[in-house]
Amino acid sequence: MSHPVNHEDLKKDGMVKLKEKEMFSVWVRAVCDNMGADKLRKVAELAEKYGRGLVLFTSRQFPIIPHVHLDDLGKVQAELRQLELMLDHCGSRVRNADVCYDANLCPYAVMDPISLGEKLDQFWRDDQGGFKIKTSIVGCEKQCTAPRVLGDLGFVGVERGDRKGYDAYVGGKLGLDPFLGIKMAELISEEAALNLVKNYVGFIRQEGRGGERAAALIRRLGERTVRTALTKDLDAGYEAKPFPCDTKQPRKTGGDILRVRATNGEATTAQVLKIADIAEKYGLGFVHFPVRGGPEIPGVDISHVQAIRDELRAAGLSLIDSGIDNLQSCFGNYCDNGLFDAQELLRKVEKLVAKIGLNNLSIKISASGCPNSCGISHLSDIGFIGTVEPEVDLNKCKGCGICLKACRGKAIAVENKQAVFDRGKCKNCGLCVKICPLGAIFAQRNGIAILVGGTGPHFFNDKQQGETRLGEKLVDLVNEARALAITEKILLLVQRTGRNVAGLISELGFDKFKKEVL
Length: 518
Hints:
It contains 16 helices and 23 strands. By secondary structure, the protein is an alpha+beta fold.
């Protein structure tokens, strides 16, 4: 007799259940968010052998193999281990440290994020308990890994006067209750940053509740309490042995960084093999995985760019050097939580951009299949999120309270043995619909919410023009046709003014912008 499969345990170990029966996605860890060409080829080969010939480049900054059958998960892990490849964690587990480029590669880097990332990667290899912790590190204020939003602990390399160090932010997260990280320390050393992480782990172990994130800790205990605990004894000695990143550059390296377009973060195995070949032939032998999904090939001599274009074109690929930035989504339609086909919508948006003739690489558009916002919809000029409006069938509801326990927005109460919704608190995630054992809660309406104006710090002539901001909800529960019509109006306004959406909202005000595009 076979034992029942524990999906939560598999999820924590980097094998996440998809919507289709007994199908999973395998999260392949990439130390320093880079992967050597030989290892990337292995990922492609496994996607062809055990998946459906598709690899995903996601906002988690590593490749994912979707559509792997339950029976093949152990085989995939065994073959990955042959090249010392591990799986990243999901669920209430510590994640790998996300970093941007080596200071020897990026001309803007003030601090070396790889150095701190290597030490944190080793630190996190010792399981730090049942808490979800994401760490994000950048070498400069361009903040390419979005540490203020995508990191419970975010470190930003800064230079002020004759001093260099890290500004430390705590609490960043997206999802149902997005939170912009709060600056807890300024201009601290790498050693102090490690001490802050150590303090955080000790503090959340002592004061945290099961599965609690840093944002919730701040909301519950207050900013001052958290700051006091995390900044204690930052100058104390701290020794950390790094887990070496095999793509770290030992000296200054020239060449350009080429960004490859991968709409929805998707690439076929043949395309991934081509990217790996180009990285080895023309670059530094590795590929970098950025937040927005389009894989990057660093260290390319400009004289080889046209040859690379030709090779990419033959594989059905192109560089991100015209149109808008890479369109990024989550798992979308094949995710167990997906409420609409995010990938299909973005393919239509891509055609819309081409029809309009918009050519502005600063414009970012993303889609998330549900309010968890794994497609970083809150950080885009235009972000789509799948939503659902739940309703209760009073003839079926027995007031069991299962939905009440599952609701993360605390929007459900049981009164007179009936589930009752507080519409003001409902996050429209649909979890209650999914979990109700009697089918008493159903989707009265499904739709798409549109967020606008999300952005990281943006630069003009290398001068910072703005701060990280989360997108605001423009509309909720519209259908795909309406979402595309609104998107077209926004893009035409962007094209006419030459501004990004955050800039337009700042200039016009949100209400006037809303009236303009609706």
